[in-house]
């Protein structure tokens, strides 16, 4: 008669390599979530737009404010671009000259820059 060896039972334990792979996967997922949270959660500028604290208005709202006399549209592009095409009644103040003319702008109206 041939004697058979009994296999050693490990119970419900997974082999060690599976644990290592699982743990590494969890660490990677956690690190990814932390990076995403830091990029989006605390950043008010998650849209990527410059000047995130400046109120943005639609072209229609800008036009309505201009027509009502409650807003002034200011074209901050260079003069050749303004001369080629601009919004009707818009002021032309190139961006690099804006600080020199800021005192000339009305304080009682919305300033709409484009």
Describe the main β-sheet briefly: 3 strands, parallel
Number of strands: 3
What share of residues is helical?
25-40%
Q: In terms of structural class, how would the helical and strand content be classed?
A: mainly alpha
Q: How are the strands ordered across the major sheet?
A: 2-1-3
The CATH class designation of the largest domain is Alpha Beta
CA-based shape: rod-shaped
The CATH architecture name of the largest domain reads: 3-Layer(aba) Sandwich
Helix and strand sequence:
HHEHEHE
Q: For the record, what is the CATH homologous superfamily label of the largest domain?
A: Rhodanese-like domain
Average pLDDT reading: 81
Radius of gyration: 32 Å
CATH topology name of the largest domain, in short, is: Oxidized Rhodanese, domain 1
Looking at the chains present, what oligomeric state does this protein adopt?
single chain
Q: Report, as a whole number of angstroms, the end-to-end distance.
A: 95 Å
Number of domains: 2
Give structural notes:
The protein is rod-shaped. Helices cover 39% and strands 10% of the residues. The chain folds into 2 domains: 14-48; 59-113, Rhodanese-like domain (Oxidized Rhodanese, domain 1), CATH 3.40.250. The protein has 114 residues and is mainly alpha-helical. The protein is built from 4 helices and 3 strands, in the order ααβαβαβ.
């Amino acid at each position: 008669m041939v004697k058979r060896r009994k296999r050693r039972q490990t119970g419900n334990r997974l082999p060690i390599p599976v644990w290592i792979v699982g743990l590494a996967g969890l660490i990677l997922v956690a690190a990814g979530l932390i990076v995403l949270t830091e990029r989006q959660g605390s950043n008010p500028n998650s849209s990527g737009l410059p000047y995130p604290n400046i109120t943005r208005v639609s072209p229609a709202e800008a036009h309505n404010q201009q027509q009502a006399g409650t807003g002034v549209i200011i074209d901050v592009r260079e003069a050749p671009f303004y001369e080629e095409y601009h919004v009707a009644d818009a002021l032309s103040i190139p961006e690099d000259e804006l600080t020199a003319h800021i005192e000339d702008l009305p304080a009682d109206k919305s300033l709409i820059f484009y």
